[in-house]
Amino acid sequence: MKSKKRYVSFFLCVIIITLLSFRNDPTKKITTKDVTFTNPKGFPKPNYNFENNQLTVEKFMLGKNLFYDNILSKDNTVNCGTCHQQFAAFAHIDHKLSHGIYAKIGTRNVPALQNLIWKDSYMWDGGVNNLEVQPINPITNPIEMDESIANVLIKLKRDSTYVSLFKKAWKDSIINSERLLKSLAQFTGLLISSNSRYDKFINKKDTFSLSEKNGLKLFRSKCANCHAEPLFTDNSYRNNGIKIDTSLKDMGRGKVTGIEKDNQTFKVPSLRNVEMTYPYMHDGRFKNLQQVVNHYSSPSNFSTNADLSLKKIGELTMLEKTDLIAFLKTLTDKSFIFDKRFADPYIRYN
Amino acid sequence: MKKTLRIFTLSIILILISLQFGFTLIPKPDKGKIQINFKHVVGNDVLKLDSTHYKNELGQGYTISKFKYYIGKIHLKNTKGKDFISKDYFLINEDEDLSKQINISDIPNGTYTSIHFILGVDSLHNCSGAQSGALDPLNAMFWAWNTGYVFLKLEGNSSFSKSPGGMFEYHIGGYKQPTNCIRQINIDLSLTPLIINSKTSQVNLKCDASELLKTPTPIDFSVLSSVTDLKNAELIANNYSDMFSILTTNNEK
Question: ipTM greater than 0.90, yes or no?
Answer without folding.
Answer: no
